[in-house]
Amino acid sequence: SQSSLNFAFAIANCAVLLFTCFAGVFGNVLVIWAVCRQRSLQTSNNALLVNLATSDLLRCVIDCPLLLAIILWGYNINDLGSVLCHTQAVSFSLSCCVQLLTLASISAERYQAIAHPFKTSQRKRRVKIWIPLTWTLAVLVSSFCITIAEDTPVYVKCRGIRVEVLTSFDTFGLYILVPIWFASLTVIIGFYGRIFIVVRAHTKKIFDKGTSSLPPPAKKGKDVRIDGKQLADKTNSEEENKSKANNDTRWLGNRSVALPSISVIPEETVEERPTSHAVKTTPGCLSSLPSSTGEYSQGNLFNRERAKAGKEGKLAKRSGYIVITFIAFWMPLIISVLMNPFTLHNPGTVQKILEVETFAVALACMTAAVNPITYAVVNPQFRSEFRQLKTKYKSK
């Protein structure tokens, strides 16, 4: 029956909204606190994450409680008042616009960070423009929403308006929300797709270079050898020269003639010594050096590049998760809005469609609790900060 269906949707809406309120407040406050506390997290991309967390926090604190009140009280009270209903409509449109525009800007800046990692000054300038621009556009859209909010599903439910008497239905969703969502989705898929392509090409280049450019191992017998016996003979010869010079000086001393002292410089001192490896020799032993220290530097470079490629590969996977999450939570609302012109002509299904679309709105609000997990918790820097917080909390 219709009453059982309404009760089932009410339970589902309450569960989704309560989870969004508590989990969203906790997650977004944690993200904002971590960035404000840790200086290493205060980057341009994380500034956009803080902007996203701020808009999601406002949604959890204002929009979700208002929507929950409308769902719970709407079955017993026909009209909850213009102030409550308009406030919910404005807060929903504001948070939606800020969230969608910020997600699009995050995808663009993440691509720039990978494709052009050294252009940090330009990135900072863009972020300083992105954040005020998103809020300005969102405020303008939400202000315009006041004039067209009276036919949205939640407003209709809030005021107890019969859908049959309306000349239009969900104008905001059809002409504002859906275009902004599709534009944001196009930007997100476009930039994260380019990130995936860049990372894949970079990884392939690294492994190709690693298998073809590394120098071959040094052949036996080609290393630099120092014969201890020859070194000992050379030393004995030098000592004999010194002894002979001293004898000559003493013999000439009887004739009051002094010769300048002779200092013999070993040949070893004028040869170039290796700068990075010390050589220790003992008589009768052989000491070898690598033919070139380039083997080590190229090997280390390859290992660093390989580790970087692994990190970029994880970033590409996270990019896929972001796109999937974005589509999964928003698609029910978008589909219901697009289907409204074709399904509202049947009076028997109007109430069911109204309940379905209200639940779709609640699912879209759930992104406020999922975004901190998708964008921040999977970040190694954020995880490190969260672990420190957990350790500090347990130590008290």
Automatic annotation (TrEMBL):
Entry membrane topology: Multi-pass membrane protein
Gene Ontology annotations for the cellular component aspect, listed alphabetically: dendrite; plasma membrane; synapse
Domain of life of the native organism: Eukaryota
Source taxonomy: Eukaryota, Metazoa, Chordata, Craniata, Vertebrata
Record keywords, A-Z: Cell membrane, G-protein coupled receptor, Membrane, Receptor, Transducer, Transmembrane, Transmembrane helix
GO BP, sorted A to Z: adenylate cyclase-inhibiting serotonin receptor signaling pathway; adrenergic receptor signaling pathway; chemical synaptic transmission; G protein-coupled receptor signaling pathway, coupled to cyclic nucleotide second messenger
Keyword Transmembrane: yes
Matches recorded under SUPFAM superfamilies: Family A G protein-coupled receptor-like
Residue stretches of biased makeup (Basic and acidic residues): 220-247
TM ranges: 6-36, 57-77, 89-108, 129-149, 172-199, 321-339, 359-378
Protein's UniProt name: G-protein coupled receptors family 1 profile domain-containing protein
Gene Ontology molecular-function annotations: G protein-coupled serotonin receptor activity; neurotransmitter receptor activity
The keyword Membrane belongs to this UniProt entry's keyword annotation: yes
G-protein coupled receptors family 1 profile domain mapped to chain residues: 27-375
Chain positions covered by the region annotation Disordered: 210-248
Subcellular location: Cell membrane
